[in-house]
Each structure stands twice: as C-alpha cells, then as structure tokens.
Amino acid sequence: MSLRRSFLPLFLLALSASVAWAAPVGTPQDFAALTVRPSGPEELDLTTGVTTLPQGGEISYREEGVTLVGSFIRYLEGDFIEVETAVVRGDFGTLTSPSLRFEFASQRLRAAQGATFVGEALGLGADTIEIDLKGDVAVLSGGVTSTTPELSGERALIDLSGRQALLVGPYRYQDGPFALRGDAGELLALTWDAAGALSAETQVPAAVRLRFAPFLP
Questions:
Q1: 122: closest CA among 99, 140, 97, 104?
Q2: What is the pLDDT of residues 73-84, one digit of tens each?
Q3: How far are the Cα atoms of 159, 179, 184, 188, 196 from residue 151, in angstroms, in the given order?
Q4: By C-alpha distance, which of 133, 182, 124, 120 is closest to 156?
Q5: Among 7, 24, 104, 158, which residue has the fewest nearby CB atoms (within 10 Å)?
Q6: How many CA atoms lie less than 13 Å away from 61 in the CB half-sphere?
C-alpha cells in the first residue's frame, strides 16, 4: 500500500508537466501527415498536445509537398505549425520569413514581419505573405518590391498553378527605359513564359481578373 501511494503523485506530476522526447537528434518522427526531423530535443506538453523544437528542425507536410525549416518550431498535429527564422519550400517556390504560421484547417501559410517569395519568374518582398495551398494563390501585402524585374506595389497576387500575377496599385513597373505606373486600386497584369521572360499589360484580361476575383477588394 505504501508503494502505491508514493507512486501515484509522481505519475500525476509526470502527466502535468512538459516532457522531452528521448529520440536521437535528427531522427525522423512520422505522424499522420507530417515527418519531423528535429535539430535537438523535442518537448511535448501533455496538457495541450503541443510539441516544441527549441533548437528547430525540419517538418515535411507530405499531403502538399511542403517542407518547413526553422530555428524554433511549435506544432500541434492537425492544427498549426509555427516556425521562426523560417524557410518553406514547395512546388510554388521558396518562402522565407522571420516568423510564419501554418493553419491546417485553411491550408494557409502566413508569413509576417517582412517576408520574401521566390517563384518561377518573380522574387518579391512584402510586409506579409500568405500562401493559399488550396487555391494555389500567393497574396503579398504591404510594401511589395522586387529588383528583378524592378517593381513596387501595394499588393501582389500570384497564381501558383499558372504563369500569371496581378500587381495592385499604387504600383510602378520598370521595363528598361519604360515605366508603367498605376494609382491606388489599379491593376497590372503580369505573365511569363517557360523561360521566365515577363510581360506586363495595363488592360487586365477577363480570365486573369476572374482567376483572382476572390482575392480582390
């Protein structure tokens, strides 16, 4: 009887505290949709179910073919993934940001505090970048800039499944000695070929406007 009484408080204490996984560093942990490769210890909070990788690591989300790498990671399987000093790679290209969050329910990656998107033909920076993995659209908001090609805008919408994008004004697009400018709310259609050669037009084709309609004001 005394042995049973002394064991019970220790057992309850273990359940209420966060515990560290004993898996070797770098050993992949396979879950329903994720493969996790920690760069250090894994800490599981048994109360919330949240796992923390204080030294970061890599998470592969197999369903969407997306890999997230960072210096610090928190995640709850089927709910969210939070990453600091983040690099995300997928079929869409590469997204880098000081911090980002992925929501399983909406299938969206949201990067804040200044982020960079590099795709097939465009490399853009913005205050925030949201990638809709369901809709195959990247939405860049606030201070959108690029040096190659030289452009700036308030927002940019990129079709991740096709070679087209919209730049939302006020915008400026430099093509050699020629520059295109638009006021607030005006649109500039961008398209590119398989080699990444860009073209721009102020008359937005109806098909392009329809593609991005859910993301326009």
A1: 140
A2: 999 989 999 999
A3: 18, 9, 15, 11, 16
A4: 124
A5: 24
A6: 23
